[in-house]
Amino acid sequence: MPVVEAAPAVVLLLPERRRFAGQPLSPALARVLARGDRNPDVEPGETAQLARWFDLLPSGWSLAAITRQRDAGDAAGQAWLRADPAFVRPDMTGARVMAIGELGLSRAEADALLAELRPLFGDAGFALSAPDPARWYLALPAGATLPAFSPPETVLGDDLFLHLPEGPEGRRWRALLNEAQVLLHHHPVNAARIAAGRVPANSLCFWGAGRLPDRVRGKVAKVASDDATLASLAALATETAGEGTLLDLRAVRDWMPVETRVLESLASAGGGTVQLDFADGAAWTLRAGQRWRLWRRPLAALA
Question: Which of 171, 184, 227, 289 has an alpha carbon within 20 to 30 A of 268's alpha carbon?
Answer without folding.
Answer: 227
